[in-house]
Every structure is written in structure tokens, then in C-alpha cells.
Amino acid sequence: MGFLRIHQIFEEMNCFTPIPAFFEDLDFQEKKFDLVILSQVLEHIENPENFLLKIKGILKPTGVLAIALPNINSILVKILKDKDNGCLWVPEHLTYFSKIGINALLSVTGFIIHKHIYVSRIPYNILSNKLNLSGTIRSIVNHGVKIMQWLPMQMCNLTGTGFMHNVWAKTTSTSLS
């Protein structure tokens, strides 16, 4: 499937045309946003500090920055002892973030964290897909995986070894209401 076809499908699904440029190269000409979402983005950025400073400049005074990114202290990294080839890691990651690291980066770029949580889950259908299951048995296995992973994943989240960071921040010029 060619790029033009992917572009057309995106437009049909989302009712807008994406800007064909890198964020760092865009000039927003005084345009301000209520929300900026960085889902699985920041770890791929060469200079995350400059990137966040640009985002700070396009947020409204009451705007929110929402970030989701992998946790370098996740249980997967600890068990596999490999930050590049664990389940959620790819060699294209330029930066790895701990809670202390993302807090420090946000602080130095003028953000205050409003909320930070860890999110961990294994896709419910991972086992049924591997076993090529279908029908009722697939549903039962999927439900079993969902139930069996709940407590271990919650323990990871509570101990700071969850798979992903989810962070919501505001600029230091706004109050945290």
C-alpha cells in the first residue's frame, strides 16, 4: 500500500489532513493548543528538551501535556536485562526514561507533573493467537489471561516497575487545579 493511499485512508478516518512535516520544522504562528498528546513519541526524539520547550510554547496557559512512554525500570527490562530488545523496546529509542528522568526533563523545561501512573498489561489475545484458537475456547483463554495478569501487573505498577509511564503535566505558569 503506497503512501498516498495511507494518507487518503487517514483523511477518511479522521476527517482532517495531516501536515506532512516534522514537528520541529513547523511554525505555528501564535496558534495555541489546549492539549498536546505525545504517545510513544518522546523516546524517539533526538533532543527531547528542545522538543518540550517548543511544545510549551504552543500550549495555552491552561493547556495540558499528556505523555505515554516506556519505563526503563520496567519489570521486563529487569527480567530480560536488556533495554533494547525487551517486549516494548526497539533499537530506535534514542532516550530511555525512568520516573526520575521524565520528572527532571519536564521540570527543566517548565512543566509541573499533575499526575503520573504506570500502565502495564499483556494483550489478552496473545496466548490464543499463538495457539491459533477460535470460538468459545479462544474467549475462555482470553478471559483467563486477562484475569491472571491483573494482580502481577498491578504489583508492577505499584512498585514502579510498570511497563509504561503515563504522565499529565501543565506549564509552571498555570496552577494545578
Describe the structure.
The protein is an alpha+beta fold and about 180 residues long. The protein folds into 2 domains: about 35-120 and about 160-170, Vaccinia Virus protein VP39 (Rossmann fold, 3-Layer(aba) Sandwich), CATH 3.40.50; about 120-160, no CATH class. The chain has 6 helices and 4 strands. A 4-stranded mixed sheet has the order 1-2-4-3. The longest helix is centred in the last third of the chain and has 24 residues, at about 135-160. The radius of gyration is 19 Å and the shape is globular. The model has no long low-confidence stretch (mean pLDDT about 90).
Keywords:
about 180 residues; alpha+beta; Rossmann fold; 2 domains
The gist of it:
This protein has 6 helices and 4 strands, in the order H-E-H-E-H-H-E-H-H-E.
Write the layout of secondary structure elements.
Elements: H1 3-14, E1 33-39, H2 48-58, E2 59-70, H3 75-80, H4 99-108, E3 111-119, H5 126-130, H6 135-158, E4 164-171
Parallel strand pairs: 1-2
Antiparallel strand pairs: 2-4, 3-4
Terminal Cα separation, in Å? 46 Å
Average pLDDT, rounded to a whole number, is 88
CATH fold annotation of the largest domain: Rossmann fold
Tell me what the CATH architecture of the largest domain is.
Answer: 3-Layer(aba) Sandwich
Given this structure, which CATH class of the largest domain is correct? Alpha Beta
Stretches where pLDDT is under 50 for at least 5 consecutive residues are none
Describe the strand arrangement of the main beta sheet, using strand numbers. 1-2-4-3
CATH superfamily of the largest domain: Vaccinia Virus protein VP39
What's the SSE pattern?
A: HEHEHHEHHE
Number of domains: 2
Number of continuous helical runs = 6
Beta strands, count: 4
